[in-house]
Write a structure and sequence with these properties.
Layout: E1 2-5, E2 8-11, H1 26-36, H2 42-57, H3 65-73, H4 84-88, H5 95-102
Antiparallel strand pairs: 1-2
Helix pairs in contact: 2-5
Length: 114
Amino acid sequence: MSYEVNDNTLETTANGYLVNQEDWSEDVAAAIAEAEGITLSDKAWDIINFLRDEYFNNGGNQPNERNMVKHFKGVWTDLDKVDTKALYVHFPMGPAKQASKVAGLPETKRKGGY
């Protein structure tokens, strides 16, 4: 599998994760999201940017869904309730895994959100 973005072919793993994280850009994220069948809303970008920040600025940390919910409770003040369902709205195949794929990060090996 690979992605074609701006006349470049980007190599991926068998599960569609970028092999070279330096290939990532917002255009690449949009192409991966399109392949995943999702639309990138402002909140989806919040999730992507949070995951990238955690990974690159916190020793390769890949937060699980519980930690993502804790973070976004303080960020998404416009929502009545921030829970895992609020994350799944943007990444229905699993916010930790699918959002990491769109964010250009390696595949996480953990099973679930907790």
